[in-house]
Amino acid sequence: MLERLIHSLETSPVMKRGEYNYFINPITDGVPLLEPALLREIGCAMVRNLDLAKIDKIVVCEAMGIHIGVAFSMMTDIPLVVVRKRPYDLPGEVAVHQATGYSKGELYLNGVAAGDRVVIIDDVCSTGGTLRALISAIEQVGAEIADICVVIGRGDADIGRPLKTLVRIEVSETQVRVVDTCL
Ligand SMILES: O=P(O)(O)OC[C@H]1O[C@H](OP(=O)(O)OP(=O)(O)O)[C@H](O)[C@@H]1O
Ligand SMILES: Nc1nc2[nH]cnc2c(=O)[nH]1
Fold first, then answer.
1. Is the shortest distance between the CB of 69 and ligand 1 below 6 Å?
2. Which DSSP string corresponds to 20-75?
3. Would you say the CB of residue 126 lies under 6 angstroms from ligand 1?
4. Does residue 136's CB lie within 6 angstroms of at least one atom of ligand 1?
5. What is the pTM of this model?
6. What's the CATH code, domain 3-181?
7. Per-domain residue ranges for the chain?
């Protein structure tokens, strides 16, 4: 299992975004293209690794959490909430600040209510800025976070909660190395 993901990572190009070594991969960028078999492989691995007991909603972040969230939602029949990068000004919307290794912005959460039990999933965790922002937004509405899982972990960010990763990687200026897997 995860052979496709590991192969895609070990053949990922790396570019500079400022000082940040940014790897380019189908799962994290949709570039150059995303094979359905790779998406299925990841969906199955998430189903096997997440605690799905009594989960009301899956929460993902725009943009590169969406395809993973859709696959996972269709496999589990659990509704999907997409945290957006633009406001809708709906009642109860929560805004939080997001900072990554190469960008800053605001995130807007709608569709999660007090008492909901949710899982957060994303493509990658690097500095942890995005997951910390998502956790803060969900805590502000009074929902319960049952589990958090990303496909790819790089670095050792502290998000203040347990984090599941399908694979862990190291990124140099020229290449990606897979150093651990969940299996
Ligand atoms: O751990 P971090 O340093 O926060 O990095 C992880 C985040 O970076 C990417 O999102 P990004 O905001 O670049 O946008 P995108 O999904 O729209 O490409 C990725 O999809 C993660 O959400
Ligand atoms: N594609 C991609 N997304 C990221 N999100 C945070 N770091 C990275 C990275 O190196 N590559």
1. no
2. EEEE--HHHH--S---HHHHHHHHHHHHHHS--TT--EEEEETTTTHHHHHHHHHH
3. yes
4. no
5. 0.98
6. 3.40.50.2020
7. 3-181
